[in-house]
């Protein structure tokens, strides 16, 4: 699935099953909540916190997909073409960071 197809799929689902988009501020709060859930699993599974028994069954991919879903909702609501935005962002990084990481002593 391309990013465009994902945006179209989410839009179709929202309009047929979800009835309508939550407003942008509500979706921003939901995105923050979803990122927090992902952060909790990452911190406990890969960080130094001990993982609670209830967290062990959490699907990391599903939590990442929740974040992506809400991000796509926000893009759709605000008229952002994520394919175009991502390409521009990648182009910016390729210019700005062309040697930045290679020259970073901390990464060696």
UniProtKB/TrEMBL annotation:
- Provide the transmembrane region boundaries: none
Q: Name one Pfam family in it.
A: MazG
| UniProt superkingdom | Bacteria
NTP pyrophosphohydrolase MazG-like domain ranges (all copies): 23-99
Q: Which InterPro entries match?
A: MazG-like_dom (IPR004518), MazG-related_YpjD (IPR012359), YpjD/YvdC (IPR047046)
Q: What is this protein called?
A: Nucleotide pyrophosphohydrolase
What species was this sequence derived from? Nibrella viscosa
The organism's taxonomic lineage, starting at the top: Bacteria, Pseudomonadati, Bacteroidota, Cytophagia, Cytophagales
């Amino acid at each position: 699935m391309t990013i465009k197809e994902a945006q179209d799929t989410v839009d179709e689902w929202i309009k047929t099953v979800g009835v309508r988009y939550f407003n942008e501020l509500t979706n921003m709060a939901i995105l923050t909540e979803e990122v927090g859930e992902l952060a909790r699993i990452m911190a406990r599974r890969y960080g130094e916190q001990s993982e609670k028994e209830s967290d062990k069954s959490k699907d990391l991919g599903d939590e990442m997909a929740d974040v992506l879903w809400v991000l796509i909702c926000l893009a759709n609501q605000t008229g952002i073409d994520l394919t175009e935005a991502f390409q521009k962002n990648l182009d910016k990084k390729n210019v700005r960071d062309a040697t930045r990481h290679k020259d970073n002593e901390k990464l060696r």
